[in-house]
Specification:
The structure is a homotrimer of 364-residue chains. Chain A has 364 residues and is of the alpha/beta class. At the A-C interface, α4, β40, α5 and α6 of A face β22, β23, β38, β39 and α5 of C. Chains A, B, C: One of its GO terms (cellular component) is membrane.
Chain lengths: 364, 364, 364
């Protein structure tokens, strides 16, 4: 566990507060060098309280310091010998400090282009970029400052990568796509493949049908704003005419499919295995659960939450939580209910018949 | 938008009609150089009418020419100064012209093998093929005329790629698979990985179970006919004994899984995130919606449509549309219905009891 | 079909029994060189009986020998001229023999590193390993005996690969992950990408919401035990603090997503397109069907079976089969039932009203 979190280097609480904010309660000169859960931390480690149920652990922890909110600090009775950094959001603070410790412990990649990489003379690669083995960069591409392209990445013609972009191994970015600053794309993801569009050119019906599907050229691209993260083997298709757009700070998990000409609003989060068909417009601050399916040409308002495995076939115009999935139950019980479900109209008809019979009786 | 659609070159309507068919109404010498929607096109652009609701835009468009069906042309009252190409299928015509404009605007790839590619001396690569950076082609493979293998593509032993095949970056084709002429495979797709087959070799039950899964060798391959298109990160497994077969002009979207020994009938379309288990036989001209799941060893007739997120567990022997998915509704409402759903048998029993009580009364 | 199964070399039944066990009934010197189904096998081929429904074919087969269980052999009346290898599990025996024939027929890969591969001087690669074209191995990685890394594979810093591991083309293994002996990973799979974790750091509600998602560093890794097989384009995320763990002999199909900090128990099988959210614990000997979704932070007991497309949102503490999926039916019929389903509470209320009315009548 967590070898990346012990760099051997330590930092004072005063220095943490200087870099990340927060108020120190206790010894500002206490040094910490890594992070650990409350119940496992030792005197050289920083712990955090983000969930009320761990409040009792604060009084017994041996951590060098605890990240805590002011409201929670006031609930801690026995604070003797404990040090705190008081911050409104201990979990986010923890995340930032953890990243800083990792950066300290990770060997810095040397800027430059690996000799095995294939860079078109017409591409423009910042001198501070780190281009890995067997990377391909085609003509007209522009690679920003400190961008990191891991082994096997392929960058198409005219792609623009912002500063501090990190593409993990074997990512493919098709021609003409743009990725903003600090975008992270995990291994195997594909940005800008052709959207799925074919014009039917058939005559006749049934067995007599002849003709073919004619490919609709996909001449838009994908435009990804800054601070987006995209998971492994996720696919985001290029637009047919206009671009597919991913707004700032959208977070997309693994194996997600986003169709051509979608727009995903800023700060929206999409969990793994979700699929979003073409030309759909998802608002800002939405949360799309795992394996959710969303039809094409629909619009989701800002702040919509769709729970895992649900299906959205129409626009959702109001914020709120939407669902259409059942939890698994005993197989035999399910089949019994499912059989009745398939004949709900018969059940309804029997109720109608009963109502009619009772009405008739009333008349007697 | 659409930089690929403005090449600077223009073409007369007469030349379009010569290449793509259709009858010209108006000035055959009018020149167009790109495509645009009816309401945005200018005099140098070609627009099209494929949907009745845009018919009024035809009378106000400034397009250099409009692709239109004869039936629709007859509905246009004010045609002064407008030029038309009359064709039975304006949308398919549009697609073909758009592709031609793109081909004009796209720098032609130079035939030949990139110096960083690794081609086994026992492979046979057509001189007109375009082999990109870091491509690997193993022994016995045959690469057809004008085939384009983008960066990072890996072609296994004995693979046959037809003429004009285009494999986008980082596609993998396992040994022995065949791809017909003009097949397009998008980035990251995997053709011919082992099907999922293991013989249970266990003794004992429950906690006492010991043994292991024994891998069933997968010695078939994947046989893909001409004009098939396969989406990014899609996976099509090789057969166990015989081949997995994809017939001509099948179109498969991204992140689709097709199990070993499936056969997908010609002209069938499969949307993103669908999964088809092994040994299943899908007919011709079917439409499989996004995220549909189809069980193994079933058969779908020709012209079957399965709507998005539905599950098929038995053969569907008649053409038609099939469904098993619910649209998402307000979370609290759903949970209320779902709770009753899980106890539908109790609801049914109450109805039975009511029926019995009424029957009894009748007897009084 | 099955070119890989005919090597031109043959083997006696006596030799098969020596290598794979079983008792010979008939001529131990009979030679076979490949495998075939009972109804297609000739005198030089080995067939097997694993399914009672093919029992009649045993009496008419022309196979050189038949793999059969003792119980089934006793049901065969006419055995004249037939040879058998009697084994408790003919299907598993078949699988092992088939693999042996393939190994004989497949040209042995030459140990060594392809000249185009990029191996960090700080990595340790066994001399017997086979490193393909354009492979990248970073510092501190250790590659075991006879490990086979196909073209385009990328191995991160400090990865440990056991003996006889086989990674197919374009697989990515992130830094610090461990793969046990004989692990097979199919093309495009990604092991050890960052888990999906972000701390919300927002203030305000609705349109006034501002702030961002703060990435939670993922400092665990993925720890995969021996004899695991992982399908094409599957993704298994690294842990946040501790490791994601895949126990021995787990078999995972294509396009499966396994979230950070999951533990998958030994011998469990997971079919294609399934998604398992973070921190979930799946028992031993479970069977997870295709496209199943499992929520995060739940536990499945040993020997749980979840049928295809079902969703698991709570822990399943008892072995058994669980389901929540409907099979697709005629679209119009489905919509009728679905509409009633959405208003099940009204149906229930009508039943209540009927019960009340009848009760009242009773009192009359």
């Amino acid at each position: 566990m967590a070898s990346g979190m012990t760099s051997g280097m330590t930092i004072t609480l005063a220095e943490l507060a200087r870099r990340f904010g927060g108020d120190i309660v206790g010894d500002a000169e206490q040094r910490v060098g890594s992070l650990a859960p409350l119940d496992k931390a030792d005197a050289g480690q920083l712990a955090f309280l983000a969930n009320q149920k761990y409040l009792p652990q604060v009084e017994t922890t041996r951590a060098g310091a605890v990240l805590i909110s002011l409201a929670d600090l006031e609930k801690v009775a026995a604070r003797d010998g404990l040090n705190f950094i008081v911050t409104p959001n201990p979990y986010a603070y923890f995340a930032r400090v953890a990243q800083a410790f990792i950066d300290l412990a990770t060997p810095a990649a040397k800027p430059g282009v690996h000799p095995s990489a294939s860079i078109d003379p017409g591409a423009k690669v910042a001198a501070s970029a780190v281009i890995g083995a067997h990377v391909t960069v085609e003509a007209g591409a522009v690679i920003g400052e400190r961008a990191k392209l891991d082994a096997g990445v392929v960058i198409g013609r005219g792609v623009k990568l912002g500063d501090d972009v990190h593409l993990y191994p074997n990512v493919t970015v098709y021609h003409g796509c743009k990725l903003g600053a600090r975008v992270i794309v995990h291994a195997g993801a594909v940005i800008g493949a052709d959207g799925f569009g074919f014009a039917p050119d058939f005559v006749g019906e049934g067995d007599a049908r002849t003709g073919s599907w004619v490919k609709i050229p996909q001449v838009g691209a994908v435009d990804i704003a800054e601070d987006v993260e995209i998971g492994a083997n996720t696919t985001i298709d290029r637009g047919a005419m206009a671009d597919t757009v991913i707004e700032e700070c959208v977070k997309i998990d693994n194996l997600v499919q986003i169709g051509h000409n979608c727009r995903i609003g800023a700060y929206t989060v999409i969990a793994g295995c979700a699929g979003i068909a073409g030309s759909t417009n998802i608002g800002r601050h939405c949360m799309i659960g795992g394996a959710v399916g969303i039809a094409g040409h629909v619009t989701l308002a800002d702040h919509v939450i769709v729970t895992a495995q649900s299906g959205v076939s129409k626009s959702l115009t109001k914020p709120g939580m939407y669902t259409s999935a059942f939890p698994a139950v005993n197989h035999a019980d399910w089949n019994k209910s499912a059989a009745i479900m398939r004949n709900l109209d018969k059940l309804r008809d029997r109720i109608k018949a009963l109502e009619a019979a009772l009405d008739e009786r009333k008349g007697e």
